[in-house]
TrEMBL record:
PANTHER family: BLR1149 PROTEIN (PTHR39323)
Taxonomic lineage: Archaea, Methanobacteriati, Methanobacteriota, Stenosarchaea group, Halobacteria
Domain Calcineurin-like phosphoesterase: 19-136
Superkingdom: Archaea
Name recorded for this polypeptide: Metallophosphoesterase
């Protein structure tokens, strides 16, 4: 994982100058009636701006479930999406949108291309990375698959934290990196007691080989843990 940089529920690929976030779920607060203390739109925008300022990427890939609601895109949700795209434009970063299972109406509010998956060439150990949402098996192959969809989190000493899941050689001989949901309102699935059949993504069959990775915003350190099959016995 030396070719990756983790920060605030996102991952950056220096060799491709590409930032990847998953599960922004724009409009989540409006759909649920829950008002996030900071305001969902401001929270998403400000955190994305901070990532853009830190990494200065050439492009930003939104790895599916860009929108939250299936059947309707409200003016507020459309405006929230536009704010994220404007953040990218202000930072001279090209936005790339990958469709997730929630994004049935994404092409109605976004006039650019919407991808089923997106390839980053020579981005990981000199090989290609395939970014997809993870709700279905990708048609293409790569050395590393980057997905979202399941919103992983881990409970450590009674505190639930968003986490990444990294598995080496676990899917079609390639590695899998599952990102936590970028939207902090999206419920995290606590992986401590989960098994392969508990995951919705078909890229996860046996979770025991997946290693949780936690980014600690206080220390700004990335903390890799042992694979879940071993970690469960330690928690």
């Amino acid at each position: 994982m030396n070719d990756l940089a983790f920060r605030d529920r996102a991952v950056y690929f220096p060799d491709a100058a590409t930032l990847v976030v998953a599960d922004t779920h724009v409009g989540r607060d409006e759909a649920s009636g829950v008002e996030f203390p900071l305001g969902e739109r401001a929270d998403l925008r400000e955190r994305l701006e901070a990532l853009l300022a830190h990494f200065e990427p050439r492009e930003v890939v939104f790895a599916g479930d860009v929108l939250h609601q299936f059947g309707d895109v409200t003016p507020d949700a459309e405006s929230g999406l536009r704010e994220l795209l404007d953040c990218c434009a202000a930072a001279d970063a090209t936005p790339v949108l990958v469709a997730g299972n929630h994004d049935t109406l994404l092409d109605e509010v976004y006039d650019g291309a919407v991808h089923d998956c997106y390839r980053l060439e020579d981005a990981y150990e000199g090989e290609d990375v395939l970014v997809a949402h993870g709700h279905e098996e990708p048609a293409e192959t790569a050395l590393l698959y980057v997905v979202g969809h399941d919103h992983p989190a881990i409970d450590i000493e009674g505190r639930k934290r968003p986490c990444y899941l990294y598995g080496s050689g676990v899917y079609r001989g390639g590695d899998v990196l599952m990102l936590p949901a970028f939207n902090r309102l999206a419920a995290g699935a606590t992986v401590n007691g989960m098994w392969g059949t508990d995951f919705q993504s078909p890229l996860v069959s046996s979770v025991n080989e997946f290693r949780p990775v936690v980014y600690d915003p206080d220390s700004q350190e990335t903390l890799p843990f042992p694979p879940l099959g071993r970690l469960r016995r330690m928690l």
